[in-house]
Amino acid sequence: MSLDVSVAKLHASVKDLITKSAASPGTTGADQVEVASWVDKVAQGEIKAESLKDLDALLVQRTYAVSNYFSAADVALYGALHPLVSQQNHAQIHATPSLTRYFDHIQSRPEVRTAADQLSFSVVSLGIENAPPIERKVEPPKKKEKAPKAPASAESAATAPAAKVEGNPEATQDKAPKEKKEKKKKEGAAPAEQGGKKKSEAGGKGSATAEDAGEPVPSMVDLRVGHIIDIKKHPDADGLYVEQIDVGEDEPRTVVSGLVHYIPIEEMRDKYLVAVCNLKPANMRGVKSFAMVLCATAKEGKEGGIELIQPPAGSKPGERVYFEGPEYENGTPLSQMNPKKKIFETIQPGFITLDSKEAAWVNPATKSVHRIRTKDGVCVAPTLVGASLS
Length: 390
What we know:
Blueprint (H helix, E strand, L loop, with lengths): L2 H6 L3 H10 L7 H15 L8 H7 L13 H15 L3 H5 L2 H12 L1 H9 L33 H8 L4 E2 L2 E5 L2 H14 L34 E11 L7 E6 L6 E5 L7 H4 L3 E5 L5 E3 L2 E3 L2 E2 L1 E3 L8 E3 L11 E4 L19 H5 L3 E3 L5 E4 L6 E6 L2 E2 L9 E2 L1
Antiparallel strand pairs: 1-2, 3-4, 3-6, 3-12, 4-5, 6-9, 7-8, 10-11, 10-17, 12-15, 13-14, 14-15, 15-16
């Protein structure tokens, strides 16, 4: 079904809204079919109060109804939702946070606002600033079970004088102290996974090794799927957001990002993204940031646009994001990158978006391309080609 046929079935006011806003019919054949399908749903009256919960679930990971850009589908949905949302009280509105965020984003777009004002689609006050915080269930810490006491006979054996070994009157069976020595020795040595140093067994003078020894490689970077569950502007910096991002841990991480002038807060709310999770925490104008949001910057520079790198649809917070290729995809990231070794700074120049908008790392030595992905697909930038990632 074509868009023109679907639009012709719409209520006159919604039809005029689409015409006046000059929204895109879709940039590809597949997108055009999906846009027409959404418009047809609106025309058939399928967007109603009983379906808002389902629509809310569908919009959890979407900024727009179709693909990653504004289209006629969004205008039609806005027109259908307007009478429903405007009749709800704040408690009902806050019960569908993704739909509320979507509706507010669309009604705030300049082309929609201009057309809506001409057609008496008034601005709906949603009271987003008074919305209750998203509840996150955190499992209580498990209590450590106390080890059972040793039997009295064992205790007396441990405290008894060491017995002499037959055939060697000077040697003693000093087993308990030996075990303690071995334990202390193990506790004193930092494990290799945490960047500790380990002596060679032969001669005790082996070279010190660490998990970040050698040339920096992409698999040292801990990339994960993140989900913004709360966002506000930094109280002391006009250009910074302070986000609470779920990266699959017991508590969300506080993250500060300088995106205020490049991505509207409405497009950041409830967003799924890729987070760099093993940078050293940094103070950003009095707020400590515990991760970094991975973004694509246009090849013309920031003025050309900045976009969040997006994981595949259906991704879950904390899912592993990795680099394709046998030499990297099974690597274990560092627990924390040492700022002095400039690991991320060395790797970052190879980060880019391909002609397909897919995020990738290009090896500067071999020119091999390693796409950035999860188990379900490749991460992408919405529109930017040839962009650098940071």
